[in-house]
């Protein structure tokens, strides 16, 4: 996809239009506080903003590459005897706020997963059938993560919400269902999917987030990743559900 437009807080209506049109936009000039991230989510989504999940900071030193993915996790915790959802498997928007840019590397890239899926239908019909018809366990590769539900989260990589929005998933947590009769085929297709996605990364245009910049993504439509980096890098991440979420 083309580079996301960079928009200031004085033109938030343009930012919302860009997000709807292209699935990605960079908000500049918001600052690096957690409050700024919450305000940005409210302004860009407006009355569609339905639910916010706890912000999380991701810091890394001399970090390796992060491959193209859509943010996704199903995480519920017990706080004082009351269950609280900290992540939702159908979060439909993600905001990534740069707290500290790496001195070298760490540039971001993004891919329009709708275009990828549409092209896959012709270029690799077998993979397209797998993505659109085969159930997998979305988080089965992470069985020992505290708070992750014991029940498998069963879904297909390409699905639709009841409001008609298309979801195109990409997670390293996906594994075949327990005792799936097509076990070997599912493993083969998951490996093929990962390989093809990784091959999409090198030619994608890179963009760099400066301190206080916020990358806003339609999590159903756009996958994102970043290059390896040296030195310290830190971002704050907020995932949300809109009124259009599944």
Automatic annotation (TrEMBL):
Pfam families: TauD. InterPro entries: AlphaKG_dependent_hydroxylases, TauD-like_sf, TauD/TfdA-like. The keyword Plastid does not apply. Keywords: Antibiotic biosynthesis, Dioxygenase, Iron, Oxidoreductase. It comes from the Bacteria. Its cofactor is Fe(2+). Residues 17-238 form the TauD/TfdA-like domain. GO terms for molecular function: dioxygenase activity. The keyword Oxidoreductase applies. This is TauD/TfdA family dioxygenase.
């Amino acid at each position: 996809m083309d580079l996301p437009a960079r928009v200031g807080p004085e033109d938030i209506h343009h930012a919302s239009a860009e997000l709807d049109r292209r699935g990605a936009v960079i908000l500049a000039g918001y600052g690096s506080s957690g409050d700024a991230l919450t305000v940005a989510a409210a302004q860009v989504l407006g009355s569609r903003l339905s639910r916010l999940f706890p912000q999380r900071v991701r810091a890394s030193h001399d970090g390796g590459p992060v491959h193209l993915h859509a943010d996704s996790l199903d995480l519920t915790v017990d706080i004082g005897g009351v269950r609280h959802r900290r992540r939702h498997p159908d979060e439909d928007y993600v905001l990534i706020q740069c707290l500290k840019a790496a001195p070298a590397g760490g540039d971001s890239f993004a891919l329009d997963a709708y275009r990828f899926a549409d092209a896959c239908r012709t270029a690799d019909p077998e993979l397209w059938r797998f993505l659109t018809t085969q159930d997998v366990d979305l988080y089965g590769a992470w069985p020992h993560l505290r708070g992750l539900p014991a029940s498998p989260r069963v879904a297909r990589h390409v699905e639709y919400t009841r409001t008609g929005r298309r979801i195109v998933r990409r997670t390293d947590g996906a594994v075949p269902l327990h005792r799936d009769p097509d076990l070997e085929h599912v493993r083969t297709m998951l490996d093929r999917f990962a390989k093809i996605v990784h091959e999409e990364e090198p030619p994608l245009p890179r963009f760099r987030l400066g301190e206080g910049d916020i990358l806003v993504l339609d999590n159903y439509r756009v996958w994102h990743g970043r290059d390896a980096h040296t030195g310290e890098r830190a971002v704050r991440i907020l995932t949300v559900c809109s009124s259009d979420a599944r």
